[in-house]
Write a structure and sequence with these properties.
182 residues; mainly beta; five-stranded antiparallel beta sheet; four-stranded antiparallel beta sheet
Length: 182
């Protein structure tokens, strides 16, 4: 009787050892860690030139990728134009972008987004489409599920989303973004 029990023990052990697959068909991907950046200057008075390469502000002659500033928006021709937040691409350096709507930021894979383009005379990829005016609160807020994909340098990609247009005291003109490099 000892032999059948030994055979049964060996058989069960083999089933578990051979039956266990070390390959994971649904691997868990690492959670992306976004970097937060807030302008230190009020973009309504001083533009901010930002480099995704360095993750820092640079000057207008430097290697910037996006410029956070304002433009004038005419809502009603009988009223004066208003200052509205504006994000420009450094077209001279070949920076391209695309707005991706309808997906959560964490689900957008910047590496696979196609159809990026650059700013041209009279046309902006992001421009004033960075924030949404809420007529009820009279505040500028990020669009829900809007991600900006930017290609800079030699085919490097980043995605970013707007977090706020207000600093911690509630003063407007201080843009905050979260971005993830690819």
């Amino acid at each position: 009787m000892k032999n059948p029990m030994l055979l049964l023990t060996i058989a069960i052990t083999l089933v578990f050892v051979v039956g266990c697959d070390t390959k994971d068909d649904n691997p868990v991907t690492a959670t992306e860690t976004a970097v937060r950046f807030t302008t230190t200057n009020n973009v309504k008075t001083v533009p901010t030139y930002f480099s995704f390469e360095t993750g820092a502000v640079t000057d207008s002659a430097g290697a910037w990728d996006i410029r956070m500033s304002y433009s004038y928006m005419v809502v009603d021709t009988s009223m004066p134009a208003i200052k509205y937040p504006y994000i420009a691409l450094n077209a001279a350096r070949g920076v391209t972008a695309k707005i991706v709507d309808g997906s959560e930021f964490s689900l957008v894979n910047a590496a696979t987004v196609a159809g990026l383009s650059t700013d041209a005379a009279g046309s902006s990829v992001i421009g004033m489409n960075c924030l949404n005016y809420d007529g009820t609160t009279h505040r500028l807020n990020p669009y829900a599920n809007r991600t900006f994909v930017v290609q800079y340098g030699t085919s490097k990609r980043v995605k970013f989303k707007m977090i706020s247009y207000y600093n911690e005291t509630g003063t407007s003109g201080f843009m905050t973004i979260d971005y993830v490099k690819y």
